UniProtKB/TrEMBL annotation:
It comes from Seohaeicola saemankumensis. This is ABC transporter substrate-binding protein. PANTHER family: ALIPHATIC SULFONATES-BINDING PROTEIN-RELATED, TAURINE-BINDING PERIPLASMIC PROTEIN. The keyword Signal applies. The lineage of its organism: Bacteria, Pseudomonadati, Pseudomonadota, Alphaproteobacteria, Rhodobacterales. It is found in: Periplasm.
């Protein structure tokens, strides 16, 4: 886990972005830890930070960066992070069952017509015949941990194709990438800003789209501690306002493409501070633009997709069968669908 902090300052936005002032004075200079991954899919947090949307709500934000979803859930439960954006995992659901965390909104979604997460094959597996998801039977499928979103996606894809795969837990995204490129695992699924650059080299091939198997998949959610959700409503609403503004800016520039070319370029440069920052801008630019997926407007949450995920975790015996949607989700903050 790494941290990055900056105190921002910005005047109130005008027009539709301006929101009611109620509760804001009480939040002045409130320190806030936001959990994230260095993925384009976490762009709402980065935009809200860089453009002062957190600051205008009274927050002094510090990012805590993680390598996988489950450690982030633990950080929320322990108080090391206040709010986070990540995929639903078995660890998160189990912490919700213990009364430690709550999902309060949606972030990244698969959407028809927008290029989404890819199914990948190693070159060795591809040359041996793994040229489509139908050929996954008996193959080694990389995941970070058992009960991760990668486990969920791989299992649903395999079930749809009527095959069985061997899941190989490798703990970190970087380790999964290394194993795929060297042929230690055969397949994986990942967001397009990572998938496409990998497939540009000789070691990895794209063999399918996750959206063909999981349409309208709620890929990531916004979550916090049960204490924040239940007792810190003004603060939680303010966080969601800031994230929603960040998501709106991101969608306009890179998904709907309703901004000018200059504004789009500004957005890509902003995201590059956090995504593929170890690469020169020109080398990272294409993957950021081509990897843009829809961020939920107003942090709306697709509860139908979340319910499917919860049902899968229960059916696999990865979480208790007594856990309900009310255990996992506080649906009072955002629009649900």
């Amino acid at each position: 886990m790494t941290t990055f902090s900056r105190r921002g300052a910005m005047g109130l936005l005008g027009g539709a972005a301006a929101l009611p002032m109620l509760g804001r004075p009480a939040l002045a200079n409130t320190k806030l830890n936001i959990g994230a991954l260095n993925f384009t899919s976490h762009a709402a947090s980065f935009v809200a930070y860089e453009r002062g949307y957190f600051a205008e709500e009274g927050f002094d934000v510090e990012f805590k960066f993680f390598q996988a979803a489950q450690p982030m859930a633990v950080a929320i439960a322990s108080g090391d992070a206040d709010y986070a954006v990540t995929a639903i995992s078995g660890g998160l659901i189990s912490l919700a069952e213990k009364g430690a965390v709550k999902v309060i909104g949606g972030s990244l979604s698969e959407e028809k017509g927008i290029d989404g997460q890819k199914i990948l094959a190693s070159d060795a597996a591809y040359q041996a015949g793994l040229t489509s998801p139908a050929m996954l039977g008996g193959k080694k499928f990389g995941v970070t941990q058992a009960g991760s979103s990668f486990h969920y996606m791989g299992s649903k894809i395999a079930a749809a194709e009527g095959v069985e795969v061997e899941f190989v837990p490798l703990q970190k995204v970087g380790a999964v990438i290394g194993a795929l490129k060297t042929g230690q695992i055969d397949a994986w699924t990942i967001v397009p800003h990572i998938a496409k650059p990998l497939a540009a080299g000789p070691e990895v091939h794209i063999i399918g789209d996750v959206a063909d198997y999981l349409p309208d998949y709620q890929v990531t959610t916004i979550f916090t501690s049960a204490t924040n959700a239940g007792a810190e409503r003004a603060k939680t609403e303010a966080v969601l306002r800031a994230l929603s503004k960040g998501a709106a800016d991101f969608n306009a520039a890179l998904v709907d493409k309703t901004t000018s070319e200059a504004e789009m370029e500004e957005m890509v440069k902003l995201i590059h501070k956090y995504v593929n920052a170890d690469k020169p801008y020109e080398a990272a630019r294409g993957s950021i633009i081509n990897g843009a997926m829809r961020l939920n407007a107003g942090a709306a949450l697709n509860t139908t997709s979340v319910k499917d995920q919860l049902d899968w975790f229960i059916a696999e015996g990865l979480v208790k069968d007594s856990i309900t949607m009310d255990t996992l989700v506080d649906a009072s903050y955002v629009q649900t669908m």
